[in-house]
Amino acid sequence: MNNIATKLATAALLATGALALSHCANDPLTNMNAANVNPRELAAESRAALKDLYSRNPGARTLGAKAKGILVFPEITKAGFMVGGMGGNGSLIRNDGTIRDFYQTAGASYGFQAGIQQYGYALFLMDNSAFNNLNSSDGWEVGSSPSLVIVDQGMAASLSTATVNKGTYAFFFNQRGLMGGLGLQGSKITRIHPPR
Predict the structure, then answer these.
(1) Averaged pLDDT score across all residues of the chain
(2) How many domains, in total, are found in the chain?
(3) What b/e string do you get for 152-191 counting C-beta neighbours within 10 Å, with b at 16 or more?
(4) Which domain, by its residues, includes 138?
(5) Which residue, among 86, 85, 39, 67, has the nearest Cα to 126 in the 3D structure?
């Protein structure tokens, strides 16, 4: 019983925090989140997650070779009970392999849902328009982007650099937990400035 109460409290807190984080790039919660990020650790975790994705999915490696940048969120937490939220931090790996920019993703969802899960995702930014969307002043509402393609296993097998050169491609990885369904609808990505 205590375990269920703890999960429900976590879900409510995450949903509230995600809703607040998704509305303003410079609000106190966003700044507090940034202050608690260790950029070296996050960069290392992002590189490791991308390397693992490449080892499991050759289609991702194919896209990575042509991408302007790859935004990797190594660990997202999603929880909910009727109202849900998700959030996590990530790094932008540029096409020259450098990491200089860090981001948070947050979002809220409504409807019948219950549970908690963790996963990661990577966004492959294939053109300058997708790359420039990252730094819009209010954050980038990912789920509303018409050029976003969620890549599943079947699609990943048919990807080639000849057929992919524009838009943004999303790969989910390392899913664990008890909540069904992954998506980016309603999530926002905002640049953060952790202490160096």
Answers:
(1) 76
(2) 1
(3) eeeebeebeeeebeebbbbbbbeeeeebeeeebebbbbbb
(4) 2-192
(5) 67
